[in-house]
Amino acid sequence: MAEQVGRAALPPGSTIGILGGGQLGRMLALAAARLGFRCHVFCPDPRSPAFDVSAAHTIAAYDEFEALDCFAAAVDVATWEFENVDLAAVERLATTIPVRPGGAGLATAQDRLAEKRFLTGAGIAVAPFASVGSEADFATAGAVTGFPAILKARRFGYDGKGQRRVGTSADLQVAFIELGRAPAILERVVAFEREISVVAVRGLAGEVAAYDAAENVHEDHILRTSTVPAAVAQQTAAAAALVSSRIAAALGHVGVLAVEFFVVPGSGAEALLVNEIAPRVHNSGHWTEDACAVSQFENHVRAVAGWPLGPTGRHHDAEMTNMIGEDVARWASLAADPGARLHLYGKASVRPGRKMGHVNRLFARHDRGH
Amino acid sequence: MAEQVGRAALPPGSTIGILGGGQLGRMLALAAARLGFRCHVFCPDPRSPAFDVSAAHTIAAYDEFEALDCFAAAVDVATWEFENVDLAAVERLATTIPVRPGGAGLATAQDRLAEKRFLTGAGIAVAPFASVGSEADFATAGAVTGFPAILKARRFGYDGKGQRRVGTSADLQVAFIELGRAPAILERVVAFEREISVVAVRGLAGEVAAYDAAENVHEDHILRTSTVPAAVAQQTAAAAALVSSRIAAALGHVGVLAVEFFVVPGSGAEALLVNEIAPRVHNSGHWTEDACAVSQFENHVRAVAGWPLGPTGRHHDAEMTNMIGEDVARWASLAADPGARLHLYGKASVRPGRKMGHVNRLFARHDRGH
Hints:
Two copies of one chain form a homodimer.
Chain A: E1 15-19, H1 23-34, E2 38-42, E3 56-58, H2 65-74, E4 77-80, H3 87-93, H4 103-110, H5 112-121, E5 129-132, H6 138-145, E6 149-153, E7 163-166, H7 172-178, E8 184-188, E9 194-202, E10 208-210, E11 214-219, E12 222-228, H8 234-250, E13 255-265, E14 270-278, H9 288-291, H10 296-304, E15 317-324, H11 331-335, E16 341-344, E17 355-363
Parallel strand pairs in A: 1-2, 1-4, 2-3
Antiparallel strand pairs in A: 5-8, 6-7, 6-8, 9-10, 9-11, 9-13, 11-12, 12-15, 13-14, 15-17, 16-17
């Protein structure tokens, strides 16, 4: 996992390849441009938002190796904006160019079971979980997790897709069938006080930094708001940063990585359970664009380019609100609101549940827990 | 000049056309993208830095009307990033689409004599000046300005190009010949204490706002640093903002406009003389990218799109340093400097005097003059 360490930093004018052309790729491309890099975006969707802000793009499927080879020949380094990118595509690219982060962390993050096993192996607390590969596993799994629990397909889930809540052991069969009998993981439902996340970043030389923990509110399984600072004890926020940094280091990650936590009542103090890792720039870090000198996007680009990391401190408290689906129709009133820092993704069509943009609001910094 | 007032704001997804593909166009395109706009850049140089961050571009000369007509058909509004754009091109575009700012202010800013006459007509103080159209004007002009003075070609000057310092009346002939006997203006050399500038912005509905005055240091006629706040009395900074706002209003300007001032000793207080107007986003406003919630680039885009202006307040003091020519070779040490916010323009070739990027440094805000 240390293949690239010690290589020279990529000079400005180099081309960064990005697999995936959604809003995360778009914001990465904008950050890369500020540092003098060119971007080349690879995405099958001809209307990818990232194409509009990039020097070049390739419209092809992730399993078209000929297109991937041309892409590799045109860029100096590649990264990706979503963790469901084909592992085979990443491995193909890695035969000729550096791909950062590498495929090892990606493989872990693509499989909810592998991820949870990795975390417990690293001594990091998670909710009780068990593998569900077939009906034969129901009894054992239910005994491990108890109920209510959540059955999640091991692969290709996002924004609550591929998940079913299971109230009793009798519901397991229905849930398993609804998920298409895909290999799954059963997890105990955690009675959490709040959800927080930390965006950490690890540089090519192994240095790690973390942004302040954000408190997240989801609606219909989609992130609605992220607020910084989170309403947790200072030691809880510090512990979350430490765990996130440990995860980044243990994965040999290069770039930004987000870790979602449940905050649960503990014996005397709050305790943390890791819910999920996203080995990429993350929606819960969008507040860094306006409240920090260096955003998560710039820091990801810095890491991928082998540059030193930038500072992760915040100069303001912040609240990020996603604009989902028809929320985008409110653009005019938000444009007129002097407190709203508006970010729109340039998506041509509006669909329910589709992330169309976000709004950051800044507040004078008030630290908690002192 | 009020043609556009009252029109609806352009919705996100609209296309903004930009005449000129240099670093100012590039930073405008980046700001436009954050608000969900597409950009189409028109520039004769096939290696224009703005192309790399725009959805579309046209490579053509500014006097190719067929190309201009195609460009007009592809965009919803047009603007420009430099004041030496062909007035005929702007007028051609304006027959079919809104061009903001319009041609009236452009014509004034393209002619140093017209600009100075406009300013004095508006009751705004400038250094003594006189027209020099031929040798016959030497005696009268010299009597008006006194010596030393500066002879400036009326048109197409920038970064000190097209200017000659004239120590005595005997030097006028040489300077006039060196400038190719082009129509010129003679201006008295001002014994200024410092140079400051104000970036103002006027919206489509006529509202005006101004960023805090920056203090500028030039080397070899090229801006080296801009520092905010300027080391002037609060009332001087306020007067500069007021004058800049009056100029924007008097020109019927839409978008950002920068006004450069000489600060000179006055009777009891500092006095201001306007040196030059730049009716566009300006190098001395690059500090707003990191020290303000809304940068000069976003506010220009807002004005051009008919959106309400964003706030112009600063949350940090700032110092902007240009990276000129070989300065860009220092990118690696600046990348490693946690206090340096690096902005590089992606220019492929380095030339002496060429602006390659800039660095912003932020400091806790300390207001002067209270």
